[in-house]
Amino acid sequence: MTDDVVVILTALDLEYQAVRERLVEPQLHRHRAGTRFEIGWLGERRCQVALGLVGKGNHPAAVLAERAIAEFDPIVVLFVGVAGALRGKLALGDVVVATHVYAYHGGTSEDDGLKARPRVWEIPHGPDQIARHVARTGAWVTQPATGGVTPHVHFGPIAAGEVVQDSTISDHARWVRQHYNDALAIEMEAAGVAQAGHLNGSPVVVVRGISDRADGTKTTTDGARWQPKAVANAAAFATTLALELVQETRISSSRTQAENRRNLTMSPTVSNTASGAAQVGVQAGQIHGDVWVAGATPVAPMDLPSQLAELREVLWWAHRSGQLDQPTYEAAETELSAADKALGDSRDGSRLLVALKRLRGLVGDIAELAAKVAAVIAVSRSSM
Q1: Domain of 175?
Q2: Per the domain annotation, does 280 fall within a domain?
Q3: DSSP 258-293
Q4: Is 271 a domain residue?
Q5: Residue at 352 is within a domain
Q6: Model pTM score
Q7: Using the 8-state DSSP alphabet, how is residue 208 labeled?
Q8: 263 in a domain, yes or no?
Q9: Which residue in 128, 147, 131 sits closest to 139, CA to CA?
Q10: Number of domains within the chain
Q11: pLDDT tens digits, the chain, 384 residues: what are they?
């Protein structure tokens, strides 16, 4: 497997299948305890996903989420499925991304009544920002939910307990409304997954499609097949989000590597002091390019293979965001593959530069991308 794995967990078989249909080449992965996962790819093998089924309830969800995190060490865990709406503004088929997860069954019973003792987990800031960006762009929408209406994405708290709520007037419904009245939706697994993520330091994002209104009409909405419609929307959003999260992780990693390389360069201010008969061998201010000192091993200022890998990611991002059309993207990929091959074949500098120059010509209309290619060309020249 690659280093950038996303774990996606579901509670129901139809939720599992909705995600699985979006995976390429899913392969069975057996855990030693008997749990079965499937590992597949998203987005032209840009994102590897480990998919698992946890069943109903917070307790099994917590155990199997813990198992998945230990097995795959994912960059993020996504929990995907359906939920009941607690607010009238949510339409059937809409998607809710949990900003908070409430475990609402905690409490203490006293003479004057039952008092809430809530637990809450908050979505990490980074994944929250990326999820909101995905929602704003609308790139996740594959088709309208029904009747030509595009589903909306809502951000807010989700309440997770151990009861299927299908009433607005029951004691249970009044309890939730009284103590968790900002919750947008209600379900039965997110608290367990959130706790497992918290204990393992793994980010968790809960994505739910609204399949009923938790108001006594669940049988009707289930009969109208709103569960598969809602979970299809949740799966579409979650898999798009997974691609974005992996992309962000790789960009952040590239930035860190570049920063580390900059930190290894010579300081622009140099002070050398000699006394007696001593002599200063080398004194330099700002240096651009390679430096060799007699008797020392030359060190390349930048790692060219990693630069090409980063360039491939930026190229794919430009294509995905619509800046590059398909024919131009394919031609650019061809030139980048030629550059990779030239780099691997005894460091053929001339063929490497020709491929990169052709690539620069293909993407010249995109200033940021052209500048990136130019920077790689400069690195290639300095390393020849």
Answers
A1: 5-249
A2: no
A3: HHHHHHHSPPS-------TT-------S---S----
A4: no
A5: yes
A6: 0.71
A7: E
A8: no
A9: 131
A10: 2
A11: 556 899 999 999 999 999 999 999 999 999 999 999 999 999 778 899 999 999 999 999 999 999 999 999 999 999 999 999 999 999 999 999 999 999 998 888 888 888 888 899 999 999 999 999 999 999 898 665 445 678 999 999 999 999 999 899 998 999 899 999 999 999 999 999 999 999 999 999 999 999 999 999 999 999 999 999 999 999 999 999 999 999 888 877 666 655 555 555 544 555 555 555 555 555 555 554 455 455 444 444 457 777 888 888 788 878 777 788 878 888 888 888 888 788 776 555 688 888 888 888 888 888 878 888 888 888 777 766
